[in-house]
DNA sequence: AGGTGTCGGCTGCTGGAGCAAATATTGCGC
DNA sequence: GCGCAATATTTGCTCCAGCAGCCGACACCT
């Protein structure tokens, strides 16, 4: 397996199929998560920002660090935080020692929102990801494989927390 | 493992972390693929459409079947095919037996484009996904786990090919 | 035939996100 | 102290995708 036969066209390459399998799996899982978030009036990026803030030591993170940790650009973070501020889940706070930086801070209301949203999200992951993995006996294998790929590919997703504050060696919290 | 300890807040739930790991891995891999496609002037959805057409029995697929197979809506497919037609990689063909349906057909030029793009994409998957998996000895485990999740979660991604024409039991070809 | 319901694809409108330019603040060298 | 480069955030422009609405076409039923 995984040695291409000569008569195969690149079109049918096994590696392409594997990537497609991963794509399809991710698309399916994330779609379910997004649908549930939408029920709470939350866009995926908004949820991720709230979650990262809540997980942060003091519930606050610099705008540019948020950008580095997510797939959004700093411009995108500005808009997302705008929307979250409008709804009272996040506030901005200026930094005492560096007046260029702006912190995004999660509010009590924002934490309450997460308390309301998280159980459903966890339930979703449990039933659509963990459960089938356990049933096929591949749960720990899967996580190990995932870590192997991530460690090889991802540069450093813990920008701004000074390498600390988030779960060690498990920097990525969010369901996009 | 994978039994939540009582003192954990939902914020630090292991299942959320696992989902985050998957999210991060997918984000990293797809970003590399997208960057390479961009070098050929291709958007991810455009590449996926071309690939699915090329893999189709006669290089043609109905618009609505393309929509069903991708994450795009039929409206989105209309626009994507518009762009591909503009650049000569795809043409539209009306159906002889049902005048409502429109086929998207890949052109020779479109196939040539794929010949040019695919090797690089395969190379990317090889070095950033297959290689680390092989190194950690988790390659076959990973695919097995992925299939378990996909089979449990994905409804049916082979719409329009009448259940045939694509790789059996491996319906998802594309790197989005 | 004629009528009705459904399907397939295309078009106006809206919102989100990236890119690039603009603005603001800091730290450095003179 | 003052200009200058570097960094951080915001703002204008543009593209892309989804939603809702539309029309043409088919199928079924009477």
Can you put this structure into words, describing what you see?
By secondary structure, chain A is mainly alpha-helical. Chain A is 57% helix and 7% strand. The first copy, chain A, is built from 6 helices and 3 strands; from the N terminus they run H-H-E-H-H-E-E-H-H. In chain A, strands 1-3-2 form a 3-stranded antiparallel β-sheet. In chain A, strand 2 (90-94) and strand 3 (102-106) form a beta hairpin. Chain A is globular. Mean pLDDT of chain A is 84; it is low at 157-176. At the A-B interface, helix 1, helix 2, helix 5 and helix 6 of A face helix 1, helix 2, helix 5 and helix 6 of B. Chain A binds a DNA duplex (30 and 30 nucleotides) through residues 43, 45, 62-64, 72-80, 98-102.
Compose a concise summary of this entry.
Chain A is mainly alpha-helical and 176 residues long.
């Amino acid at each position: 397996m995984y040695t291409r036969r000569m008569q195969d066209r690149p079109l049918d390459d096994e590696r392409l199929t594997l990537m497609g399998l991963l794509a399809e799996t991710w698309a399916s899982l994330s779609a379910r998560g997004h649908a549930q978030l939408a029920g709470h009036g939350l866009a995926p990026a908004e949820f991720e920002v709230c979650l990262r803030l809540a997980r942060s030591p003091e519930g606050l993170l610099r705008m540019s660090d948020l950008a580095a940790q997510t797939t959004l650009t700093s411009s995108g973070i500005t808009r997302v935080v705008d929307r979250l501020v409008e709804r009272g889940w996040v506030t901005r706070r200026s930094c005492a020692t560096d007046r260029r930086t702006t912190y995004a801070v999660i509010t009590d209301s924002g934490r309450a929102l997460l308390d309301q949203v998280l159980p459903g999200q966890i339930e979703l992951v449990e039933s659509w990801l963990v459960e089938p993995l356990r049933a096929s006996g591949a749960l720990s294998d899967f996580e190990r494989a995932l870590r192997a790929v991530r460690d090889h590919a991802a540069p450093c997703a813990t920008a701004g927390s000074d390498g600390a504050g988030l779960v060690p060696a498990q920097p990525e919290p969010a369901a996009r």
